[in-house]
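Hi, here's the filled form for the chain we discussed.

Project: internal
Contact: R.S.
Residues: 496
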Amino acid sequence: METVSLLLCCVSIALPPWIRADECRDISVQNETPSVNQPFAFNCTYPPLTSGKALVTWYKYPSKIPVSKNMQTRIYQDQNWILFLPLAWGDSGIYQCIINNANMCHRIHINLTVFSETQCVSRNSQVNLSDEYKQILHVGKNDSLTCHLNFPKSCDLDSIKWYKDCKEIKGDRFAYWERKRKLSVSNVSAEDRGNYLCKARLTHAGKQYKVLHRITVNVTENVGHGGIIPKITYPTNNTIEAQLGSTLIVDCNITDTRDNTNLRYWSVSSTLVDIYYKESKRVQEGIETHISFQEHNFYTVNITFLEVKMEDYDHPFTCHAGVSAAYFILKPPVPDFLAYLIGGLLAFAGVAVLVMCIYNIFWIDIALWYRSIFQSPGAIEAVASVIDENIKLCRRLIIIIVSESLGFDLLKNMSEEQIAIYNALIQDGMKVILIEVEKVKNYTVMPESIQYIKQKHGSVHWSGDITEESLCAKTKFWKKVRYCMPPKRFPPSSHA
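And the returned structure, exactly as it came back:
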């Protein structure tokens, strides 16, 4: 024990230069005694710290270089895990993970001692195992043993077998829980004491390895710890909002004594989750993981919904740990009416802007189209009224301005033109269309009447040569002329 303490005192100098030793707080020290030539993994997890945004980095004393994250190497960091594929003799030593979050630094120390590979241990053999490898069965009760083979998600474990005193365990009193890696023992007796072994096949990146876990089992007639029961910290009989069709993972967090033999599992409608959904496998119970502390263990076992469906709502999903139980109920999310309102207003504003842009570009085409579609026929009248109506339909004064060299003296001497301009300017009974055949640079040399018409009505400018395309009614010039002309009216149909 003194040797371990001395090594831990020296670990502080192995920290990277940007981490001060006095800023890091030691959380726990753990001893691990795995066998050589088999995979081994350890998860650096401390829920109050690693559940949020925390940076986890692994080191081996006295190196200041972090453990590689390249999965092609034999030893590498996988998420929060340190993974050995497989262990070698030279891997013995002290490892530490540094947990950095916000303004604090924490450390977990692992004293790793690699033992020689042992397939099984006979009943009378004495093996110096850590507390994690020692378990207790209670006489006269239905109890269980746990195979602590904990690896990251990148590793797949299957084909788990149990042995006792070098012989494979068989019989009606024993039942295998492969997914939970447990061995149930009915009606425990003193004969169940001994050396146990669980062995499994591990597959990682296409390679297969053999991995095993030794357990020394004692039996007792005492319940231990004065009847202390497990504490489930989550769930808390609460509700969880989940979108229909979404994927959901919920953890069950449990604090229990170190030598407990409680089963930890999920159920729905008083049935094990894996049995209730054995056909669809849409909802599955995850693998149990744990972290050991000086006086207790912290367990986590999750439940995964690959796709939330309507039948999952309003049913309690219960986490069990011995005699303790807690549940959660799924609920559909409450509609966000504010989001719908904001989305509707934004959509309306977008449509309004789009309409305004289209109108500003095609306003003449829209006006001409409206005139051609929505025209109401008038009623029949007398001949004088018809003539008067026809005159009104034609009452547009078109003034064509040609080259300035022609001058406007002629306009001053022609009585018809003067009368037309008088009616247009004074009586305001005739609309004027001013057409520029050529661009007029200076209107000050023109009669005041023309200047006034230009200021009041503007002008339509002709540009380009006279070609077949320019005479087309769909060109911009002719559209403007048509727009300035009075709307076309149709005579009403005659009555019998």
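Let me know if anything looks off before we file it.
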